[in-house]
Amino acid sequence: MIEVFKNEVDKGLQADSKTLPSKYFYDKIGDALFVEIMNLPEYYLTRCELDIFQNKTQELIEAFSVSTESYFELIELGAGDGTKTKELLRSLDAQNYNFDYFPIDISSNALNLLEKDLKNELPNLSVQIQEGDYFKVLASLKESKKPKIVLFLGSNIGNMSDDMAADFIYSLGSNLQAGDKLLLGVDLIKARHVVLPAYNDSQGVTERFNLNLLDRINNELGGNFNLNQFKHQPEYDELEGVAKSFIVSTANQTVEINATGKTYNFTEGEKIHTEISRKYNDALIEKIIEKTDFNLETKILDSKAYFADYILRR
Ligand code: AVJ
Predict the structure, then answer these.
(1) Is 19 helix (H, G, I), strand (E, B) or coil?
(2) Which InterPro entries match (predicted)?
(3) Which residue has its alpha carbon closest to ligand 1 atom 1?
(4) CB atoms inside a 10 Å sphere around CB 198
């Protein structure tokens, strides 16, 4: 684990255009900062998808084309605290659908909290928490051949390039059967004055989230980044529909990392690219899906049409 982290950091900081992978945002502090981000007034994504789950619940259920007569498995990739999904679970439960809920997450802590919470709120629901890698868990569930609905919410796919997203969805499909469904929640391309503040909040939470990467390198790899000499810089290209986060060096400086035994030079204004948050439209989704075994069935929008839950059929 730490070896992989070290090698990726070393490679990213030695490149001509420096990069660090966004997956390393999520340590304990990063997880907590992301929860704070989801509650920020500027971060509309979570609220928009919650709006869909609260107010378009019946449309979602209809799109799943399940019946109360037969059993299905509802699988969520990266369930977190399950706030949005709970709306759906409550409704499925009230209408006597026959299903098990399989939340998958890499955080056992998050899963245990979710399990406890659901036991309290929906005591009749069957919850089978699954800790670990999405594809390993899906492979283990594949054998049952039970009909499946997979949820991948929150525009989490947006951290991937379009090619990576197509590969990812293709791999999901290879762990599913014909007729199974994928609900893919994505943020839509929209005006800069809406998107950019979501990644540049006035309280500086996103800045702390981004710079936490340098803190992790300091703590886990023995780095000596001076966080006062780096700042957060988001960008959004409205035409392309991609938000990017950077960490910018505010001085000419040299940083040492014990674990790699190397030093890294930064010029004033030099950027480290840390994240892409892709935004989508129908054409982009269709192009990605084309390379997979899924077909696009419907999309369900929030009241502002900022966010879409696409329903794909394997
Ligand atoms: C969790 C990937 C959906 O890209 O909007 C939030 C992560 N980064 N603020 C996103 C994030 C900065 C988030 N996703």
Answers:
(1) strand
(2) EgtD_Methyltrsf_superfamily (IPR051128), MeTrfase_dom (IPR019257), MeTrfase_EgtD-like (IPR017804), SAM-dependent_MTases_sf (IPR029063)
(3) 156
(4) 22
Residue nearest to atom 4 of ligand 1 (CA): 277
Alpha carbon of 123 to ligand 1 centroid (Å): 32
Q: What is the pLDDT of residues 165-176, one digit of tens each?
A: 999 999 999 999
pLDDT tens string 12-30: 999 999 999 999 999 989 9
Distance 201 CA to ligand 1 centre (A): 13
- Name every protein residue with a CB atom under 6 angstroms from any ligand 1 atom: 37, 45, 154-156, 158-159, 199, 206, 209, 275, 277
The SS3 of residue 157 is helix
What is the Cα–Cα distance from 87 to 54, expressed in whole angstroms? 6
pTM: 0.95
- Per the structure block, which two tokens stand in for 147? 């009909």
Of the candidates 306, 313, 278, 311, which has an alpha carbon nearest to the alpha carbon of residue 88?
A: 311
List, in sequence order, the alpha helices (H) in the chain. Answer: 2-14, 28-38, 44-55, 57-64, 83-94, 108-121, 134-142, 162-174, 192-198, 205-221, 282-290
Q: Is the ipTM of this complex over 0.95?
A: yes
User: d(Cα 221, Cα 9) in Å, to the nearest integer?
Assistant: 9
CB 211, CB 204: distance < 8 Å = no
Predicted confidence at residue 1, as pLDDT, reads 79
H helices, E strands: number in the chain? 11, 14
Q: How far, in Å, CA of 52 to CA of 58, rounded?
A: 10
Distance from the alpha carbon of residue 187 to the mean position of ligand 1, in angstroms? 10
Sign of the dihedral through C-alpha 284, 287, 290, 291: negative
What is the spatial distance between Cα 256 and Cα 262, in angstroms, rounded to a whole number?
6
* Cross-strand pairs, 127: 101
Which long-range CB contacts under 8 A does 68-71 form with residues at least 24 apart? Answer: 68/95, 68/96, 68/97, 68/98, 69/98, 70/98, 70/147, 71/98, 71/99, 71/146, 71/147
The two tokens of residue 274 are: 């840390």
The rounded Å distance from CA 306 to ligand 1 centre is 15
Taking CA atoms only, the protein residue closest to ligand 1 atom 2 is 156
